Structures are given as structure tokens and as C-alpha cells.
């Protein structure tokens, strides 16, 4: 047996606001940041994970992760790794910490960092990338990872087992398909709101040349600007190339319907986060009001219960999970099973630092062991900050190629951690 000897945390911030990378209608000056966590054992293995933020408040997120040290330090790690479902439930059900949510917000994301770090160790010890470790579990083992509390009126344990058992035939074949052709990606890189028209046009051309089959534009600050920018994108991409739009929660419900319909002539592939991520009924009203344009959301959905309600209300036609917004791998497995139950495609959010590296494992697991499909599914790609990771994403022909390195892909390079540790101002030493 080995023991956990430390839960180390670091406040890491990249000054992306200086170049307006990541800028949108609600977040004009983001500094892509990571509240970084490392679970260390007395046999010198370590699990790495993080919570993504955009600058101010990253210190709060670090403190929340620190608050979980008492649950881990000094404990034998093997029982925790052998029962990751039980470990997950123990953490999210700590009654005093749960009071801060329940099961949402800064504390819930902190639990996700710890859970993801433990999965990193488990995958490294197995010598497998996380997606492959998960995809080779039995349906019964996968179901054991999920907390079905509050899901029973939409997804039961038996429902989940049926979905997973149906996907067992063809698992090996789908693994080989991933290695051959990868998982489809789309790119948001041309569409940041702070970019000039010339930069938008150049990056859109580059995205098409690279093989991406969809781009996304940020919208919502000014309708006339959105019309102009969308027209520029259409001139570059042609009338039939898929272009999605993302309002980043900017609008009231009626405003969203009016605004999206004003852009309908450009045929948006979907409208993303049109209003508050907690407004399930608002999303449902928007979905009815902008049809046949699809509504997508989920990157700020706080837990599996929000996803359940969005699906039950027919409020979304594209579900977007985030690798670090909810409480880690376990809760995202629940989200993937919900999407499969309702027949809604999952197109994960991956804008930010390290999110591409992390969420690809969940989509690839979904393809092999849950939905069994890549149809209508793609992972967001943003070409920022990958060089800071030990195993950066590999894109070929606009598709994510499956990682083969063991672990979750969330480990950052030591030099990058040292250089971008926050010093209290935009001076990195």
C-alpha cells in the first residue's frame, strides 16, 4: 500500500487579455488560468489536474482545492483508486462542504480537480490513456462510478446499464477507428470578439485549410457588428460551411430570440449559451423561438441535475460538457449517459487552457463505450497554450488524434508552472 503525502496547489495565470485571445461579449479581458492541483504519494507517483478560470478568483479556487487536503493526506491511495465511485460520493457528500453548493460552484469544481487527479494516477498506474482505461471497463464498473441520486426520473441504473451493454459489441473496432481517423474537431480560433475583421478572415481560411469542418463566432455585443462579421465569415467560408455562434450568456430570453432570428439569413449551425446557463425554461423558450437553428449549452452547467432538466425540457439540441466545471470524470460520465438516453449529441467545450487536452478523453470514451457514434459530434479546438502541457493535443486534418500516453493529459510542464505562477501582477518571473 502507498499513502497520499500531499495535495499541492498552484495559482497559474497566462496574460491572454493582452492579445484578446478568449474575448467575448461577457468576458472582454480573460486571462486564461489554472487552479492547479497535484496529488502526491510516498512512492513518487503523482496525479495532475486543474480547474480552469479566467484570472481574478483563481486564488479562491486554489483555496477551495486546499480545503480538501484533509480528505486525502495520510490515506492509503489504493482503496480510493479501487473504488472511484465511492471516493466520488464521499467527497461530494461531505455535509459541511456540500452546504456551500450543494453540488455546484467553487467547491464542486475543487472536488472535480481532486477526482481528476486521482484518475490521472489510476490511468498512469494502468499504463493507459484515460479514455482507454474508461472504455475498457465493464458496463457494471462504469455504472458504479455514477451517483444516480436526483437522476431517477430521467436515468436509472438499469437505463445506464442497457446503454453501456448495447455499446459493448464493436468497442475494439471503434478504438481502431479512432486511431485511424481521430475524433472530429471544430475551431473557435477565428471568432474571438476582440479580433479585427482581417484577422477573422485570415483565421477562417486557415481553419478550412487545416481540415476543420466548422468554425464558431462570438456574438452578442452589437448586432450590426455581428451581422458584418458573420457576412465576412460567409464570404470566406461559402454558403454551406457550418458556422456556429456563441453569445456567452449575454441575452434576455426575448432578446436572444430576436437577435438570433436577425442572424438567421447566415444559417448559424447552432446558437450557444444564449442566456443564463441556469435558466432551463428560458433555453426551452429560445429553442422554440429560433427553430430550426439549434440551441447548445453546457459549459457552465453546474452539475448533472442541470443537464437532466435541459434534456427533459427539450431546451438543447447540442449538449456541451466541460471537463472541469462539474465534479470531474465521474459526473461527466453521468452527463454522457444522460445525453445518450435522450439521443442528444455531445460537442464538448474546450476553449481555455488545457481543456482540449482534458475533454478529448471523455468524447473518445463516449464514442467507444457509450454512444458508439461520432455522427453530429465534434470537440471544440482553440489553438492556445498547448505547448505548456506534457502531452499536448494532436490535431490532424481537423480531427483530434487519440492520445496514447498514460494519464489524463492534464499535466503541465514544470517550466511553465514556474514561469506562470501568479505573482500578484502581470509580471512573470
Automatic annotation (TrEMBL):
Domain of life according to the entry: Bacteria
Keyword Hydrolase: no
Residues in Mandelate racemase/muconate lactonizing enzyme C-terminal domain copies: 197-293
Keywords: Lyase, Magnesium, Metal-binding
InterPro entries: Enolase-like_C_sf, Enolase-like_N, Enolase_C-like, L-fuconate_dehydratase, Mandel_Rmase/mucon_lact_enz_CS, Mandelate_racemase_C, Mandelate_racemase_N_dom, RHMD-like
SUPFAM superfamilies (UniProt xref): Enolase C-terminal domain-like (SSF51604), Enolase N-terminal domain-like (SSF54826)
Gene Ontology terms describing biological process: amino acid catabolic process; carbohydrate catabolic process
Cofactor(s) it depends on: Mg(2+)
GO molecular function: L-fuconate dehydratase activity; magnesium ion binding
Its EC number(s): 4.2.1.68
Reactions performed catalytically: L-fuconate = 2-dehydro-3-deoxy-L-fuconate + H2O
Pfam families xref list: MR_MLE_C (PF13378), MR_MLE_N (PF02746)
Protein name as annotated: L-fuconate dehydratase
UniProt organism field: Microbacterium natoriense
Lineage: Bacteria, Bacillati, Actinomycetota, Actinomycetes, Micrococcales
Amino acid at each position: 500500500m502507498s499513502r497520499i503525502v500531499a495535495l499541492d496547489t498552484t495559482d497559474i495565470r497566462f496574460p491572454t487579455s493582452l492579445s484578446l485571445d478568449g474575448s467575448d461579449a461577457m468576458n472582454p479581458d480573460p486571462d486564461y488560468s489554472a487552479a492547479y492541483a497535484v496529488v502526491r504519494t510516498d512512492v513518487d507517483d503523482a496525479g495532475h489536474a486543474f480547474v480552469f478560470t479566467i484570472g481574478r478568483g483563481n486564488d479562491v479556487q486554489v483555496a477551495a482545492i486546499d480545503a480538501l487536503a484533509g480528505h486525502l493526506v495520510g490515506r492509503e491511495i489504493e482503496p480510493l483508486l479501487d473504488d472511484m465511485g465511492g471516493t466520488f460520493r464521499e467527497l461530494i457528500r461531505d455535509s459541511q462542504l456540500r452546504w456551500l453548493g450543494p453540488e455546484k460552484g467553487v467547491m464542486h469544481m475543487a472536488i472535480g480537480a481532486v477526482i481528476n487527479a486521482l484518475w490521472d494516477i489510476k490511468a498512469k498506474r494502468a499504463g493507459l490513456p484515460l479514455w482507454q482505461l474508461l472504455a475498457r471497463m465493464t458496463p457494471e464498473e462504469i455504472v458504479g462510478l455514477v451517483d444516480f441520486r436526483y437522476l431517477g426520473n430521467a436515468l436509472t441504473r438499469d437505463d445506464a446499464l442497457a446503454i453501456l451493454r448495447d455499446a459493448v459489441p464493436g468497442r475494439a473496432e471503434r478504438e481502431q477507428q479512432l486511431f485511424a481517423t481521430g475524433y472530429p474537431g471544430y475551431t473557435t480560433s477565428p471568432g474571438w470578439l476582440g479580433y479585427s475583421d482581417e484577422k477573422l478572415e485570415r483565421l477562417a481560411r486557415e481553419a478550412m485549410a487545416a481540415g476543420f469542418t466548422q468554425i464558431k463566432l462570438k456574438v452578442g455585443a452589437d448586432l450590426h457588428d455581428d451581422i458584418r462579421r458573420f457576412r465576412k465569415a460567409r464570404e470566406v467560408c461559402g454558403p454551406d460551411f457550418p458556422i456556429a455562434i456563441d453569445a456567452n450568456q449575454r441575452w434576455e430570453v426575448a432578446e436572444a430570440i430576436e437577435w438570433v432570428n436577425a442572424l438567421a439569413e447566415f444559417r448559424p449551425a447552432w446558437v450557444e449559451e444564449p442566456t443564463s446557463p441556469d435558466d432551463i425554461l428560458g433555453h426551452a423558450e429560445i429553442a422554440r423561438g429560433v427553430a430550426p437553428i439549434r440551441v447548445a449549452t453546457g459549459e457552465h452547467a453546474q452539475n448533472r441535475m442541470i443537464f437532466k432538466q435541459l434534456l427533459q425540457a427539450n431546451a438543447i439540441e447540442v449538449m456541451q460538457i466541460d471537463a472541469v466545471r462539474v465534479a470531474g470524470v465521474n459526473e461527466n460520465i453521468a452527463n454522457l449517459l444522460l445525453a445518450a438516453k435522450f439521443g442528444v449529441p455531445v460537442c464538448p467545450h474546450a476553449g481555455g487552457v488545457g481543456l482540449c487536452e482534458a475533454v478529448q478523453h471523455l468524447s473518445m470514451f463516449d464514442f467507444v463505450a457509450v454512444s458508439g457514434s461520432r455522427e453530429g459530434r465534434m470537440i471544440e479546438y482553440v489553438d492556445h497554450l498547448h505547448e505548456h502541457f506534457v502531452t499536448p493535443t494532436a490535431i490532424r486534418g481537423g480531427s483530434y488524434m487519440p492520445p496514447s500516453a498514460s494519464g489524463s493529459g492534464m499535466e503541465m510542464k514544470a517550466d511553465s508552472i514556474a514561469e506562470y505562477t501568479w505573482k500578484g501582477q502581470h509580471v512573470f518571473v
